Automatic annotation (TrEMBL):
Pathway: Cofactor biosynthesis; molybdopterin biosynthesis. GO terms for molecular function: metal ion binding; molybdopterin molybdotransferase activity. This is Molybdopterin molybdenumtransferase. GO terms for cellular component: cytosol. It catalyses: adenylyl-molybdopterin + molybdate = Mo-molybdopterin + AMP + H(+). Residues 189-334 form the MoaB/Mog domain. Keywords: Magnesium, Metal-binding, Molybdenum, Molybdenum cofactor biosynthesis, Transferase. Its cofactor is Mg(2+). GO terms for biological process: Mo-molybdopterin cofactor biosynthetic process. It comes from Thermanaerothrix daxensis. Catalyzes the insertion of molybdate into adenylated molybdopterin with the concomitant release of AMP. Its EC number is 2.10.1.1. InterPro entries: MoaB/Mog-like_dom_sf (IPR036425), MoaB/Mog_dom (IPR001453), MoeA-like (IPR038987), MoeA_C_domain_IV (IPR005111), MoeA_C_domain_IV_sf (IPR036688), MoeA_linker/N (IPR005110), MoeA_linker/N_sf (IPR036135), PBP_domain (IPR024370).
Length: 656
């Protein structure tokens, strides 16, 4: 039977991995080594319990600088009836940590005694007086650290399977050890493959992909307690890949063969594994990451039984990173003898409907906020190539394989990447994205706050506010009848919610044209020229509304515009259409033209407002947003963005 790209359920994949490793004698800790405590052992796992050899302290020790004495000798001491003790026979000076004299059982701090000379006058050297006078009695063992206060010899200090932290090393040394038995770090070979890959730092041309999966996988392996070995890029050549894998099998405990896992003409991973050993599965019903491969190959130069597990890690960066989390982390946990990581989970309300492929376990990246007493989760981009979806993610929502989707408003469980404490310091914005919000996020971070934004367009933002799922929404919806921004839409979509509309920025919209503006395009009037090809935004986009509004005012019939029907979904996609020559111009923001080195014909200033429910105006998280609107340093930073105007920032369009 061919196992080639046939998805099996996750539990079946886990079972096959376990059985293959059990058979190879690898379903256990890989090895134990005894290392000096002076080596960097933080993150290593104890291989055996640590039983104290010594007590700590291992003698009765003074806990204060002062005088050791017998507590009984101070009985009856009072402010009006002091007790005097002779130094030498009844009291002895000690520093903190000194051995307590055999005969003593308490220490009085030096500042609590009168140090006197033979004549009862203050002594010249208070540490070596003739006698001391006390005006309070001391109970026995006052200011003494008795032997074993910290650790009693024979006591369990740390169990086996414990991940060492800096403080643990101190306790181990204190209880009499110089070295410790820890589990061996699994060596994980990481082999990036692909003709299109170029090393980090190489100037790129179209088709080149900066090789970074090996960087991510290596960092994951190191952070989980393994020892990564990164190999150079191997081109898409079956024999070269085979040679590299063979080489890696000699020096590693696990091989991660990256990319070439799917069904493309140059996807060799499965074949290479078959040639070197046994292909155990190819395809698991998880998204992203479904073409993952697992096999066992022989270890060259060793007995026939010696095997090395190999994972074919899918090439798409999100798939690669998640494959690390799902498959590699538990193996490193097993081999190092620690429990697998159990992420903290929260229950959250989903802000947007998501669909999921039937039969697959689906890993949806989400951002999370605490809004109006509820925890809400907004899904991020789903593409397996969108590494920033993992960078931005606060957690992962796993949709089980039997479920084909989840409706907005349903409760879901999310595995957290971000600590739940941080979520309380998060402002959750849903709506139209604007670059100035990225700056706002930076300035808020200086104040210990996090701004998380989910970009769903202006209208989507108003709907999120209506459902109580955001603290604020950015919006730039023009009313074609009045030429006023946002007001009418807010009344229409939020009839029962008191909200403030505050002007945030003015943004320049204009025509994105090729460098040097070869067609001499000056305004919307030029769109009807027979030699001009236009590219449009999709219906419902704020920019499309703006275009139609101005065409109407100028009396231009959209049917006369060549390319009016060509629709793109983002500013950057419009710019890309112009850059490639598919269109001569399109309406968009300055920044999109700049990003692709294009020219820009400024036409209109549009308003981008923040819509904030009145009930959040007093929220500790929202106040700094208003402070920043008036802070010169912030206004200046926004004004420096190309095509931005902050002249009206902070003006209240509709108050509470
Ligand atoms: N006919 C099918 N095609 C694909 C399937 C399928 O089931 N049938 N699955 C898709 C899925 S899902 C994934 S995931 C990918 C897996 O692809 P491969 O493992 O074969 O990897 P490539 O095609 O070589 O690369 C995919 C993508 O990732 C980039 N990449 C690869 N390595 C690196 C690296 N080290 N650093 C950064 N980026 C990397 C590569 O350039 C590609 O853009 O297959 C789908 N196709
Ligand atoms: O399922 Mo593929 O693994 O990322 O998109």
């Amino acid at each position: 039977m061919s196992v080639y790209l046939h998805d099996i359920p996750m539990t079946e994949a886990q079972r096959r991995i376990r059985e293959a490793l059990q058979e190879a004698g690898l379903w256990q800790v890989l090895g134990i080594e005894t290392l000096p405590l002076s080596e960097a052992l933080v993150g290593r796992v104890t291989a055996e319990p640590v039983w104290a050899r010594l007590s700590s302290p291992h003698y009765h020790s003074a806990a204060m600088d002062g005088f050791a004495l017998r507590a009984e000798d101070t009985d009856g001491a009072m402010p009006t009836a002091p007790v005097t003790l002779l130094v030498g026979s009844h009291a002895a000076y000690v520093d903190t940590g000194d051995v307590l004299p055999e005969w003593a059982n308490a220490v009085v701090p030096i500042e609590n005694v009168e140090a006197l000379d033979q004549n009862g006058r203050p002594a010249d050297d208070p540490r070596h007086p003739y006698m001391i006078r006390l005006r309070a009695a001391l109970p026995p063992w006052t200011h003494v650290r008795p032997m074993g206060e910290d650790i009693v010899a024979t006591q369990l200090v740390l169990p086996a399977g414990h991940v060492l932290r800096p403080v643990d090393l101190g306790a181990i040394a204190a209880c009499g050890y110089t070295d410790i038995a820890v589990t061996r770090k699994p060596r994980v070979a990481i082999l990036p493959t692909g003709d299109e890959l170029v090393p980090i730092g190489t100037p790129v041309k179209p088709g080149d992909i900066i090789e970074f999966n090996s960087l991510v996988l290596a960092a994951q392996v190191a952070s989980w307690g393994g020892e990564p070995i990164r190999y150079p890029i191997t081109p898409d050549d079956e024999n070269l890949i085979l040679e590299r894998v063979r080489e890696a099998a000699q020096e590693s405990d696990l091989i991660l063969l990256n990319a070439g896992s799917s069904a493309g003409s140059e996807d060799y991973s499965a074949r290479v594994i078959e040639r070197l050993g046994e292909l155990i599965f190819h395809g698991v019903a998880v998204r992203p990451g479904h073409p993952v491969i697992f096999g066992m190959i022989g270890r060259p130069g060793e007995s026939a039984g010696a095997k090395v597990p190999i994972l074919g890690v899918p090439g798409y960066p999100v798939s690669a990173a998640l494959t690390g989390e799902i498959f590699v982390e538990p193996l490193i946990a097993l081999w190092t003898g620690r429990p697998a990581t159990q992420p903290e989970e929260v229950e959250a309300v989903l802000t947007r409907k998501i669909t999921s492929p039937a039969g697959d376990e689906d890993y949806v990246r989400v951002v999370i906020g605490e809004v109006g007493g509820r925890t809400v989760a907004a899904p991020l981009a789903r593409g397996a190539g969108v590494i920033t979806s993992l960078v931005r993610a606060d957690g992962i929502l796993v949709i089980p394989s039997g479920i084909q989707g989840i409706e907005a408003g349903e409760k879901v469980r999310v595995r957290l990447y971000t600590s739940s404490r941080v979520l309380n310091r998060t402002i959750f914005a849903i709506g139209s994205h604007d670059m100035s919000l990225d700056l706002l996020a930076q300035f808020l971070a200086e104040r210990g706050l996090r701004l998380v934004s989910a970009n769903v367009g202006s209208l989507g933002g108003l709907i999120a506010l209506r459902r109580g799922e955001a603290h604020l929404a950015g919006s730039h919806l023009l009313d074609p009848e009045t030429g006023v921004y946002n007001l009418r839409y807010v009344r229409q979509y939020l009839p029962n919610e008191a909200v403030m509309i505050v002007r945030w920025v003015g943004r320049e919209q204009g025509l994105i044209v090729r460098p040097g503006n070869p067609k001499g395009i000056k305004g919307l009037e030029d769109l009807v020229r027979s030699d001009v090809m236009f590219v449009n935004r999709q219906r419902g986009a704020g920019t499309r509304v703006l275009l139609d509004y101005h065409l109407g005012r100028l009396g231009i019939n959209s049917e006369a515009i060549r390319g009016y029907q060509q629709e793109e979904y983002t500013h950057l996609a419009v710019a890309a259409a112009v850059a490639s020559g598919r269109a001569d111009c399109g309406l968009g923001v300055t920044a999109a033209a700049k990003a692709l080195g294009l020219d820009f014909v400024p036409l209109f200033q549009e308003a981008y407002d923040l819509i904030i429910p009145c009930k959040y105006l007093e929220d500790e998280r929202i106040k700094p947003v208003f402070d920043l609107m008036h802070e010169p340093r912030f206004r200046q930073a926004v004004a420096q963005l190309p095509g931005y105007d902050v002249g009206q920032m902070g003006i209240v369009v509709q108050g509470c």
